[in-house]
Amino acid sequence: MKFKIDPKIFDKYPGTIIGVVIVKEIDNSGSNDGIQELIAAEQTRIRANFDPETLSQTPKINCWRKAYAEFGCKPKDSRQWKISTNWLPAELICGKSTNLSIFIILFA
């Protein structure tokens, strides 16, 4: 495996901290009751505190959108570049089920 980061990233974002997790022999399929309970609790919290129309302007989500835009990505225009920190909360507000891997859900 090769993990490469353009040095310009650190010039533009001097406080950047990057981590890589390598996991072997783990099952990322299926579902987990504990995780489903966490998702349900988060869905309740998100619905109570956020409006789907303004969710993308929330500071913790908007910073990701800006970062993607700065390197030329337009998340609204591309299925390939969906930002999980933006997309997943929006799905939860609307009550849609999440068919993502366990690790993507936990990351977002």
List its salient traits.
108 residues, mainly alpha, 46% helix, 0% strand
Can you give a write-up of this model?
- This protein has 108 residues and is mainly alpha-helical.
- The chain has a domain at 51-108.
- The protein is 46% helix and 0% strand.
- The chain has five helices and no strands.
- The longest helix is centred in the middle third of the chain and has 17 residues, at 33-49.
Order of helices and strands: HHHHH
Instruction: Give the low-confidence spans.
Output: none
Strand content: under 5%
Number of strands: 0
What Rg is obtained from the alpha carbons, in whole angstroms?
A: 16 Å
Strand count, sense and barrel status of the largest sheet are: none
Overall average pLDDT: 75
Overall, the morphology is flat
Q: Into which percent range does the helicity of residues fall? A: 40-55%
What is the count of helical runs?
5
Distance between the termini: 24 Å
Assign the structural class, choosing from mainly alpha, mainly beta, alpha/beta, alpha+beta, or little secondary structure.
Answer: mainly alpha
